[in-house]
Amino acid sequence: MAARTSPFGRVTLVSGPEGLLADRAVAGLVEQIRAESPEAEVSRVDADRLDAGRFAEMTGASLFAVRRAAVVSDLAALPADLAEDVLALARSPLDDLALVLVHGGGQKGKGLLDKLKAAKVTVLEAAAVKPWELPQFVAAEARRVGAGIDTGAAQTLVDAVGHDLRGLAAAVSQLVSDSEGGSINETQVRRYFGGRSEVTSFAVADAALAGRTGAAMEQLRWAISTGVAPVLVTSALASGLRGLGKLVTAPVGLREADLAREVGVPPWKLKTMRSQARGWDQGGLATALKAVAVADAEVKGAADDAGFALERAVLVVARARRG
């Protein structure tokens, strides 16, 4: 196996919307930094808390360490007056500095992102995992912790837990730690997560997207009472709405497999989505997506009562559907 390139003397950009993969990439870099130079001073800061003085302090020579490392998160929020300072280090890296920049994707800060890539920084992608790739992620996660998992068990776990990578990784870890080793099978998954698979975040989303307000609210309350994480519900709602948006704007005449690929769902899901899509237009989708985005921020800490935030979002989504 080829030796890994040293993170010192370079700028590394971790870019993409998948937080779990970004966190792991940063953790791997920090581990490499400490292994290579145990005495190195490692600083971490969110970009919106930086000013010129703090940035110079983090990236300049230290009286106490020969080498330094700086991790700047949420690069999209970097103050505009610091962009040139960051680019200067990207274009002329310091031999004794490891600078790690983390950008969550999206359009904000894209200008700086493009200039960093043009400066030939090292880029580690944290791209979103497509829905049909999730069973493969589960299998890879099982291998990562020294186990295996049947193909059917991987799909069953995705159906039960949802599309959130952190939730899936935690579920795999729990299954491995509570088992006697070997390959995880479908029976084990159903034993541990069968309660969730009956009323998952996606069951809540499907009812809301179909305009069945009463059923959606009943399933939401049961899901919360059985321990489904609120962020999984907002993720499922957002995923469902984006899928409907792609379905209603997809080119006419596509074959079933091509349409599924265009929408980003397994072919068997199209029948349900077509039924849901009959009541949606672009205005309703925009209203629903806005409500889900607000709820997602609230359940991640902006609101005191995550359950109330979810109920409000589910009501808006169900009522945004026509008829």
What does this structure look like?
This protein is of the alpha/beta class. It has 15 helices and 7 strands. It has a 5-stranded parallel beta sheet with strand order 2-3-4-1-5, sandwiched between helices. A two-stranded parallel ribbon has the order 6-7. Helix 9 (201-209) crosses helix 11 (230-248). The longest helix has 21 residues, at 282-302. It is globular, with a radius of gyration of 23 Å. The N and C termini lie far apart (60 Å). The relative contact order is 0.09.
Topology:
Elements: E1 10-15, H1 19-36, E2 41-46, H2 52-59, E3 68-73, H3 83-91, E4 97-103, H4 110-118, E5 122-125, H5 134-144, E6 148-149, H6 151-161, H7 165-178, E7 183-184, H8 186-198, H9 201-209, H10 213-225, H11 230-248, H12 256-263, H13 270-277, H14 282-302, H15 306-320
Parallel strand pairs: 1-4, 1-5, 2-3, 3-4, 6-7
Condensed summary:
The protein is α/β, with parallel strands linked by helices. It has helices spanning 19-36, 52-59, 83-91, 110-118, 134-144, 151-161, 165-178, 186-198, 201-209, 213-225, 230-248, 256-263, 270-277, 282-302, 306-320; strands spanning 10-15, 41-46, 68-73, 97-103, 122-125, 148-149, 183-184.
